[in-house]
Amino acid sequence: MSEKEMTGFDGLYGDTCIAFIEYRRSLGYKYGERIVRAIRELNRYLNEHTTDNTINLTKEQVLGFAAKRENEQPMTQMRREALIRQLAVYLNSVGVPAYVLPEHQHERCSFVPYIFTREQICSLLKAADGLQYAYRSPNMNHVYPFLIRLLYCCGLRISEALSLKISDIDFSDRVITVRQSKYNNTRLVPMSESLFACLRNYMNSVGYSENDTGLLFRNRWGEAYRTGSILGRYKKLLVEAGVPCAANGRLPRLHDLRHTFAVHALESMVDKGIDTYVSIPYLEEYMGHRNIKCTEKYLRLTAESYDRIIDALVPLYNDMFKGGDEDE
Question: pTM score > 0.70 for this model?
């Protein structure tokens, strides 16, 4: 860990939490800034709730940290439970007594992603193309038009897009290498001619060259944009484009562009008569899913609105998904 990352890991549990992070990373888990921040919070909690000077993760400590908090979303609590469970397993493995929180069956999420219509995508891109130069964010009027196209046309996660380096792009074959994504995998993502032309236009506008080794999307200091800073302007673009709120009363997420890519891509393949035994595995690889059931879940979530897709998938469901639902 860097010195910056180790800041805040003090007290009785400080060294243990640092060792835990390094151990998880050695197993291939990314453990980026968000998780390190969460472990910092866990470290503070344990230091404040230790009655003696001994590292001993008690049931009382674990249940206190994992307890649901006021106005907290279920997913937030589940992440906290998973974190302290992983720490307890690690402590036991190195001979330190620790209570392992049992896995609870939380209420199944009924979330349905927002799928943009093609008309809404066009309106969103038109709004992004109309952005004007801003002194505080001098390149954002160029970043948003290409970033939104990249997310929609390639189905990238926002974290993957913001981590891309120019050196990850093969300009000869129009292929992007997405490195160490969600499941720590690396995959190749081809670009269409039109998207590649947009890439060229974006790079010319911001003054980047093919030999540049920096991030594709970076601020004036050469650092990666934070997802939060991208999200604020994105929401304003949605409103300007006239995109309505989803069923939950909230505006569509950036991640819904990825869901939309998956549905529109399969819809196009169904229209062309491409066999689903070919199209689903292709989407699985293209989107970097852990297994084919993750891809199936994306499409099953939109079953009511895309009957043609579901009808085409029925034979595949019968062959491959007899065991019931599995979460992504």
Answer: no
d(CA 244, CA 110): 20
Burial 86-111 (b: 16+ CB within 10 A, else e): bbbebbeeeeeebbbbeeeeeeeeee
Give the separation between CA 276 and CA 273, rounded to whole angstroms.
9
Evaluate whether 298 touches 310 at the Cβ level (below 8 Å): no
- 241/235 Cα distance (integer angstroms): 10
For residue 180, give the DSSP letter.
S
**CATH of region 118-241, choose from 3.30.565.40, 1.10.443.10, 3.40.630.30, 1.10.3720.10:** 1.10.443.10
Enumerate residues 6+ apart whose C-beta is below 8 A from 184: 28, 29, 30
Statement: residue 212 has pLDDT above 50: yes
The number of residues making up the chain comes to 328
Can you give the pLDDT at residue 110?
54
What are the residue boundaries of the structural domains of the chain, listed by start?
Answer: 3-93, 118-241, 255-320
Which of 29, 25, 2 minimizes the C-alpha distance to 181? Answer: 29
- Residue with the bigger pLDDT between 4 and 106: it is 4
- What digits encode the pLDDT tens for the residues 144-169? 999 999 999 998 999 999 999 999 99
Token pair of 84 as six digits: 């302290």
| pLDDT > 50? residue 310 | no
The token pair at 175 is 């292929």
Strand partners, 178: 187
Q: Provide Rg for the chain, Cα atoms.
A: 22
Q: What is the DSSP letter of 177?
A: E
pLDDT (tens digit, 9 = 90+) per residue, 113-151? 788 999 999 999 999 999 998 888 889 999 999 999 999
